[in-house]
Amino acid sequence: MKRLLAIELQKIWKNKASRILTITYFGLLSLLAIISFIKLDFGPIHIDVAQQGVFNFPFIWHFNSFIAVYAKIFFAIIIVSMMANEYSYGTLKQNLIDGMSKKEFIASKFLTVIAFSVVSTVFVFITSLILGLIFSSYTELDIIFSKMSYLLAYFVNLIGFFSFCLFLGILIKRSAFALGFLFIWFIIECFLVYSNFHFSRNFLDFLPLESMSCLLIEPFSKLSVIKNIGSQIGIQNTKDYTVHFTTILIVLVWTAIFISLSYFLLKKRDL
Question: Which of 266, 269, 224 is nearest to 105 (CA)?
Fold first, then answer.
């Protein structure tokens, strides 16, 4: 397993575009700390983000996980490009000639997905912990380490999304078309979710991208300032922010499907 992962990491680091995207990806995750310096002025209204409670434990786990998950598109580009390069440069065929089995090839890609998801989650954990210890009004250990299920949801979200991108990269072979298909699929799911056809919520929750988005519900409506505005205009907040085991299971099932389909395509395809 270490050998397979080392091979993939070497491929990514030796590719200039992938190296830049990887650095950019983790650079964006580092920008979570910049949020603490944001101050907005709207006439007589002054908003200091750090003073709004976004860095209070345990809310920070939810807030930072939700913000950080949007940086995943950068690593998605790396995964899709990585697969396109395997076909374009003939490294896939060369790896198979050198003795790597197709199962090992898929395993190496999936190990890379897991590795980046783990590192990203640890990165968000450390960043959130530091910001929380600096700005949080609550420093009791039981409060600090409560509600950490949002980090698990973040990790599962990355695993599922990156596995989907890996499948598209193998299916379509061209990075631009694979990313285009990903965007089209996103538009289709948005249409189904927000259309007036009133699809069953149970059906929508099983869509791949929608199930991933359901892992981390937006946290902003939990802020007291937003709640106060909502109550003043008569809007009741009925959102369920809980990370449900069933949603995690759905995403993990999709992950297994995407990896299995990737292996099936590679196994049946004439290289």
Answer: 266
Helices 59-68 and 102-135, axial angle in degrees (round to 10): 130
Q: What single-letter amino acid sits at 111?
A: L
β-bridge pairing 39-42 and 45-48: antiparallel
Strand partners, 47: 40
E-strand stretches of the chain: 39-42, 45-48
Q: What is the pTM of this model?
A: 0.90
pLDDT digits (tens, 9 = 90+) for 71-117: 898 888 888 988 888 887 778 878 777 788 889 889 999 999 999 99
Residues contacting residue 65 through CB under 8 Å, at least 6 positions apart = 124, 128, 150, 151, 153, 154, 216
Number of other residues whose CB lies within 10 A of the CB of residue 209? 18
How far apart are alpha carbons 27 and 202 in whole angstroms? 37
Secondary structure (3-state) at 48:
strand
Domain residue spans of the chain: 2-268
For 238-266, how does the pLDDT look when each residue is reduced to its tens digit (9 = 90+)? 688 899 999 999 999 999 999 999 999 98
β partners of residue 224? none
Q: 111-120 burial, b for 16+ CB within 10 Å, e for fewer? A: bbbbebbeeb
